[in-house]
Structure formats: structure tokens, C-alpha cells
Amino acid sequence: MALRITRNISRFWEWGRKIICVGRNYADHAKELKNAIPTEPVLFLKTPSAYVREGSPILVPLYTSNLHHEVELGVVIGKGGTAIPQSAAMEHVAGYALCLDMTARDIQDECKSKGLPWTLAKAFNTSCPVSEFIPKERIPDPGNVKLWLKVNDQLRQSGCTSQMIFSIPYLISYISDFITLEEGDLILTGTPKGVSAVQEHDELQAGIEDVVTMSFKVDRRDQ
After folding, report:
1. Is 91 exposed, middle or buried (0-12, 13-18, 19+ CB in 10 A)?
2. Predicted structure pTM score
3. CA atoms of 75 and 151, how far apart (whole Å)
4. What is the pLDDT of residue 5?
5. Who's near 61: CB < 8 A, 6+ residues apart?
6. Are 106 and 66 in contact (CB under 8 A)?
7. By the 8 A CB rule, do 176 and 84 touch?
8. Tell me: the pLDDT tens digits for 78-112?
9. Is the separation of the CB atoms in 221 and 59 below 8 Å?
10. Keywords on this record (predicted)?
11. Where is 218: in which H helix or E strand?
12. What residues does 181 pair with on adjacent strands?
């Protein structure tokens, strides 16, 4: 009998295969970037090498001069599936993580103007800082979670997941219609308004109210 390898979901960033991101899921954020409010989810991907944990820096890619922070609630998938109905979606959630979607905004704007994918703007190494794993029980209502982010102790982003256009059950169902969800996958659910540029040596602090905080320094790749 083949032995099933048991993986530790609380270290999903070490072995999870996909980071599926939802863009423009907060109306005020879509407006601040002069984007239309979507009528269906806008999806893009990050690679597993985007993960970075506290104690290691966020590295600014050499090709950008306008790196932005986006604080988000991440959903960690504990049970895979395809075409998951909304009514069963939360059964597939193992827990959550506080995440940053670091974005090379100048590159994204250039890609958008040319009709090109956002990969270089979104999927570079260290573009997905994540907190410790948050067990599902610690966030009983993921539709009412308060997120915040500070840069050098100045508050830049403050919002609540109740402002999301598409709910977590809807996102899980929608994504799984096209992309099979697997154990260890991470879904980034979008960012509230207030995104702004960060510079080398800045310190980013982010939190989910009453649940978790994390801190990252920004550094620049030297080659």
C-alpha cells in the first residue's frame, strides 16, 4: 500500500503549488487606480518563489522604480476540488494568512497599456510576503476582517473584507470552475484603497485586527 505523505498545512508556503490572486476586489481600490469596477473576478497568478517570510527582506526588482504595497487576506486551501459549489466552499478552507501583494506599478501600467500580462509586475521573487498560518477557528467570519498597513509607522491602508465585491465562497467556487484547487494553494482576495509606493530601507508593518501582525524591510537587489 502506498504511503500518503502528510504535509504540514501551517507551512503551506514551503510546498503549496499555486498563488491565485484576485484583482480589483474592492471598489475604492479599483477607483483609485482609475480601473472599472469588475462584474466578475479578475484573476492573475504568482509563482511559489514569490513567498517571503518575516526575517527576510522584500527585494525591489531592478526594473521598477514604483513598487507598491497591497495588504490582503489570504485564504489557504486545505481540501482540493474542481467546480466547488459556493454552499460547500468554506469546507475547503484550512485557514488564512495575512499577505502583501507587492506590485511593480510602473511595469503593470506599461503592460496594461500594451495589452500584455502582468507577470513581471506581480510574480517576481519576494512579491508575496506572508504571515504565520492562521487556523480557520481564529477568523470565524472572514467576511468581516479588518486589515491595516503602515509604512514607517504611518498608516497607509485600512479596510475591511466586508467591502469586497466578491465573497470568499464565491471566489473559491469561481476559481475552481477553471483552475483545480489543491491543498496548500493560496488565494489572495484583493486589497482595500490606500496603495502607495515604498522605497529601499522602508519598514512595512501590517495586521489583521486582534489576530496577527507582521513586519518586513524593503531592500533592493544589487544585481
Report:
1. exposed
2. 0.95
3. 24
4. 58
5. 67, 104, 120, 124, 221
6. yes
7. yes
8. 999 999 999 999 999 999 999 999 999 999 999 99
9. yes
10. Metal-binding
11. strand 212-220
12. 81
